[in-house]
Amino acid sequence: MSLVIGIDIGTSSTKTLLLSEEGTIVSSASADYRLVTPHAGWVEQDVHDWWQAVCNTIRQIVQYLESDQCSFSVRDIKGISLSGQMNGAVFVDASGNPLRSAILWLDQRAQEQCDQANDQVGDLLRNHALHVLNPINTLAKVLWLRERQPEIYAEVCHVLLPKDWIRFKLTGTLQTEVTDASVTAVLDLKTRNWSGEILDGLGIEERLFPKVVESPTVTGQITESVASETGLYAGIPVCAGGGDMACMAVGSGVRRPGIVSVGIGTAGHVLTYAEEVDGAAFNQLWPMCHAIPDKYFWLGCSFTGGASLTWFHDQFGDSFTELIDSAEGAPIGSDGLFFMPWFQGTATPHPDANARAGWLGMTLHHTKAHMIRSLMEGVVFDLRHSVECFKQLKLPINEIYIGEGGSRSALWCQIQADVFGKDVQVLEVQDVSALGAAIIAGVGVGIFDDFESACSMSIILGETIHSDPVRVGKYELQYQRYCNLYPSLKNWFLEH
What we know:
Helices cover 38% and strands 22% of the residues. With 496 residues, it is an alpha+beta fold. Helix 9 (244-251) crosses helix 14, helix 12 crosses helix 13 (410-420) and helix 13 (410-420) crosses helix 16 (469-483).
């Protein structure tokens, strides 16, 4: 029996998953770490925390394989692949050592550099990367470092995305792949390679960015030192993998037209398959290269979807179960209370780093239950923007699959079905990005024939949540009011 490992280096934790050639999850492990916010709008992480989490979770997998209850062995592992939080920036020297903490996708410090770059090379960004440069993009972080920390920038030999630094630690090789690269604002989406025009226009050397390959490509092997540290054996092939959203596309079955995947994790995401992408949804959705070679997908995002509920939990106590149970007692529409989940700015369809979260419409009648329910509703309203963008692109929406933390709450599942106005199916596997990475590994080393057969075997759909026509009608009125919030507040956000 052959096994593959998928490792997802997420924003709040690393999840490692062991998948069999029959598409069955054999074991999984996770390890948490923290965000660092040294200044308002800054979000960083210590990359060594990622590495320790990766090693810890691999050791847990190995320990299970060596236990009496398992019929497999470490030697059955035939491949490994990586998923990772996108748009981070790990600045390393010639030896691959980080020169500072990683700047994460949530970071908003680089708006000034974005404004300058958009003025300078805006046409190139639009024509090649299909992007307006935003502080979330890795390119923005490179420009910020060059301007604000030139002494560090002078020592930078490579700019790596989070999972690509982990791959360097595993294999000693420096590479990236098309999915993660496609939202850095440096990749030409047509050629699926770095845009020399964008880099030349900004005076950035292309040597800073590693070679780009397709996701299933084998990029190296586990080294002797890593084998000693983790319990793996040296020589296991490591495939390129993908950004977490691309791995989510694979792990949630978005491998053909008509399937939409929705996930509420730290962020909230909506994505769907595309044979090709163009500028039709420019600066509304993110066009991305798919892990399936030569294919694409569209991504819509709410930066702090699930993080909004986590923030409420951290600030005001009660368990998540207690919070959601409380929200059950509030009516649909939360008696006119609206929540805007924009703690780190807005994404789809109005990218704006200045936007901020908050409640609107509060009265003395409202309770904590109203606040929590309106928070959950506001996150789904924000995600519906992406679904509406798909409709504008005339993309089919035949099936909606929901996963991540937002699918663990029956209330949040029902809100999604009613706000989208369509039945939704719950993905049985919650760690879909780790599953997607494992599938990529299986395709890359030949355990699976192709993505279609691998997804058919590995992805299990659970309960169907039916939308209710009465609730759909009520939510439609609320959603239309929600759509007016950002346009009404846009200029006010500029004054903060």
